[in-house]
Amino acid sequence: MVVSLSRRGNVEPFHAMDVLAEANRLKAQGVPVISMAVGQPSDPAPARVRAAAAEALQVGRIGYTDTLGLAGLRKAIAAHYADHYRLEVEPARIAVTTGSSAAFNLAFLAMFDPGDRVAIAAPGYPAYRNIMAALGIDVVEIALGDAAYLHAGHLEAAHREKPLKGVLFASPANPTGAVIPADELSTLVETAEALGIAVISDEIYHRLAYGAPDTTALAFGNSVTVINSFSKYYCMTGWRIGWMVLPEALVRPVERIAQSLYISPPELSQIAAIEAFAATEELEAVKGRYAWNRELLMKRLPELSFPLAAPMDGAFYAFCDVTRHTNDSMAFARKMLADAHVAATPGRDFDTQAGHRTMRFSYAGSHDDMVEAMARIERWLR
Ligand SMILES: Cc1ncc(COP(=O)(O)O)c(C=O)c1O
Description:
Structural class: alpha/beta
Oligomer: single chain
Helix content: 40-55%
CATH superfamily of the largest domain: Type I PLP-dependent aspartate aminotransferase-like (Major domain)
Number of helices: 12
Radius of gyration: 21 Å
Strand order of the largest sheet: 2-8-7-6-5-3-4
Bound molecules: pyridoxal-5'-phosphate
CATH topology of the largest domain: Aspartate Aminotransferase, domain 2
Number of domains: 2
């Protein structure tokens, strides 16, 4: 038997998914696990989103759509930019994608060639590194050290060492929750443009910031590629639906690649997602609960000797320094799951160098679960 294995298949596993699988295995055995490991809302999609999907299912014919998405959804997304950011975006520059994950594939394939150097922050969302590595892109991880987020100085220093072709950042970020303030974001985007570095801004955690209003990188340059999704604020992870806002020159290349990779995003999810922008009342109530959980964890985690390693500005994550308890966050996370029945994500996912010192707690669950999880950890540590 001949089995061919590519080097690309050797990418780092997504450890959070491994922790989730272990938590699910324990749950199936009847163990009352509280999962703070995976970044997904515990609420269902908004009622009107589900109603639109139910109606479409009654009609029944769910088919391919235009590769760049249903005209109605592209228009609704453009209207969202006008309503939320006061920015005019042509629907023609919007590509609907199978979650933001597909948008990363499309952006990387359309923007970069193998061997191009593209910078990301460490810690950062692991799929950036893993997808780029699988595509043969040279991933330049910029260690943030004590900085909460990537800024223009980081980019200049990395570019000086060896020229960069692109940079990708998220604000609010995963795993840190840090938000890049508007003035720093503007300097970052303008510096990248001046240096000839293409910008990808992952805005998947927009509408989930607890202090400053959202600022899109699009406000500072039309050559920015923005990636966003219905997964987080809109509580639609399993619907696998997201979008990109593209500079004009990238629209056709992305369309050509998407035609062959995906044909189209799922029509049922697109029909439903049109309704998501009208569900603000319901979604703000969900966000209100995250804010309540955040207040709790901001107090309880440091009390349990998990000092915050980054400000909890947005998203639904607390990123903590665990060195008062361990020098191996992976082993610590496994033991916490086995003994205290609380799942959290070891920092290794987000930072291959310094991740043994950190852990991420997602607070997208119910408030009661958060209270109980902190009590369990406290008992366990004692
Ligand atoms: C920063 C960031 N970007 C993108 C994604 C992928 O989201 P999706 O493919 O569901 O849109 C995630 C998921 O956790 C994330 O944290």
